[in-house]
Fold this sequence. Notes:
Distance between the termini: 26 Å
Helix content: 25-40%
Number of helices: 17
Largest sheet: 7 strands, mixed
Amino acid sequence: MDVGARLVRDYEDGAGVARSGPVDWPDPGSYLAATLPVWGLAAGSVQAFLAAGDRYREVTGTAPIRHRLDPARIAASFTSDRLLRIDGAPIGAFADLSGFFPTFDGWVRTHANYPHHRARLLNALELPADAPVEHAEAQIAMIRAADLEELAAARGAIVVQVRDEAQWRAHPQSVSAAAGPLVALAERSDRRRYTLPISGTPYQPLQGVRVLDLTRVIAGPVATRALALLGAEVLRVDPPQLPEIPWQFTDTGQGKSSTLLDLRTAGTQWESLLDTADVLVTGYRPGALERLGLTGRPGLIHARVSAWGFTGPWAGRRGFDSIVQAATGIAVVEGASAVPGALPAQALDHASGYLLAAGIVDALAARTADGLGRDIRASLARTATWLLSERGRTPDHPAPVAPGPHTTVTHGRIVTAAPALAEFPDYPSPAPGYGRAEPRWPPAPVREPR
Length: 450
């Protein structure tokens, strides 16, 4: 069985457990309750990551551990932005120009959490940078949804028309989003002499694996945080010219180091990091990495996550979980055409993150035998297509049950969700100071060549 098919089997095993569950579980649907089977998506993606970790332990001779799927822990991890507290206060996950807005003939959903995205949206609306939200709402109300979607894309802003499932299936991007496996893995012909990492422990089998994290927001950071949980050395690299949302980094930066580096001018400093990395995880749109010369390292595991997929007319467009929900019909399923709704979590992001991490771990295990580099791809739109195709819709579901107190951890002034993996009481470390690390790896133990 190839790696992609194995991941799907693992996912389905976890989703099946989620649908039945032990007798002492609460109703699985009570966590992440929605019309669509979100709990099955969450449990399936976490199970896929657990199974990949077990295969890596077997390949590297590390002792196995016992797992259990705790619905409350998984739900808490998937809704971590709602559980996050800084100095006792919750955070606002969406900015005032991020959300659903009525148009001349329907609805759109916008995303303007980052300052540069807000500026582009206002520019697309032909409004000044300091325009109040009311002016933006009035302008949006005078434009057709499809026209605003295209206008925003041309200006680099993030707006999609809210579609129902039939409208999405008729869209050209829907075909590309549904094509291929949930996680795509492909061997490359490049090789390098590979050395096994230092002997890992049962709970940290990835000790000695170096991961460069060039992702933001949720899906990519969740994948690299999961790798850090299993012992990988993760260095997140952000461009100094683009601001980050502090709470978002706090929510997904556990177990990592964080540095600032402009890849356009970093030269040999970046080359050295990349040449000594085992894994590169990126969230750039197709083509951007090639223009920066960041591909083609022999033996490198390169994992990519995107919003819309890597082919099709929208492959180069920006997108986020909430935006993909709106475009693919999920917002209508969870609400109505008259009043769109949303999933109880950024579930496309989190599930895609765990699935991407599972693919990375399997690729690392395979590389120990053949030394081959591999490309791994996941997209939010592909995950959305999977969710929409799954059986078990519950349109008359109750409100989601809040996870219990055992699902959070506290570090000083920060309260965050505990890991989704119930065998881990906490992450290796809280999120570090943003950008405070030097752009280099810490000294590594001496390893014998394989």
